[in-house]
Amino acid sequence: MSIDGQPDHDTIPFDPGARDLGIVVGFDGSPNSTQALRYGAGIAARRGVQLTVITTYRAPVPVYGAYAAVPAQREDEANRRRAQTALDEAAVLLEGHRGEVSYMTAEGDSVGTLADASANAQLVVVGARGRGGFLGLVRGSVATTLPAHARCPTIVVPGEDQEEPAPTSAPVVVGMDESQRSRVAALHAAQVARERGTSLLVLMALPMPVSELSWYPELSPDAEGIAERRRQELQAVLEQDIAWIRAQVPAIEVAGEVRIGEPAVVLHDAIGESQLTVVGTRGRGAVRRVLLGSTSRAILHEAEGAVMIVPHLQDERLPS
């Protein structure tokens, strides 16, 4: 049962030790996917797990108007060779990697392939955009679609200069909203913070109250005063969640704050002070059946730093 009384039929079984693909990286040879590869390799090295590099290729249906139009080299074979070339490039980039590496090519759709692999992975890392066919344009199709279907956390690495960061004083930031889903996200954020030797900053957003009375200032309630009183109430609730996180992951420093504003705005404003921003796939929004909540979508589309999207995974540490 979820924290708000709704049954959670879509909770995903998650046993990290049984997921033998380890850290999965989607790679197509593009500069952004190269950064994703380095990012994922750093995580795999710290966790001491396998790094799995996957690239996909299309096998188009051959339709030729005449015999003379038949190419000397079949297009699917050429695509397969290009995929193998990409993996050869990845192997060169990983020559100094400490740990086991597995390389895979797969025929078909990139999102589907990586989503299937996520069922046997601890984490999937992709770049925000790649070479059109693999990672799409701007915020590519894989970067925006995969987190909604993945069965493990997904990290999206934006920008061609965004490498897996070395440990710094910047915290890992996670958004919470009193839901069990956000508690799952907080546990995974805490794990990352512990691995990087940094702190965890837990943020809860409190939107300003909206009322039709705002059209009549002389009748309007003290919206700012109401919001501040509610913020203080939620701060007390958040402190309980922080105490629970500290009990589950005692090796890290955890701080928390309730900030007034829309969740996506609050988290976006905090990106500059974090080395990774973590959100759940869905929160306490009214539309519970959407695959990816409005906050996580907004953060994915607008974030300038790395973002981790965590689905609703089973975890025995969650309070009942």
Automatic annotation (TrEMBL):
Location of the UspA domain: 23-158, 171-311
PANTHER family (UniProt xref): STRESS RESPONSE PROTEIN NHAX, UNIVERSAL STRESS PROTEIN UP12
Protein family according to the UniProt entry: Belongs to the universal stress protein A family.
Protein name, UniProt field: Universal stress protein
Organism: Candidatus Brachybacterium merdavium
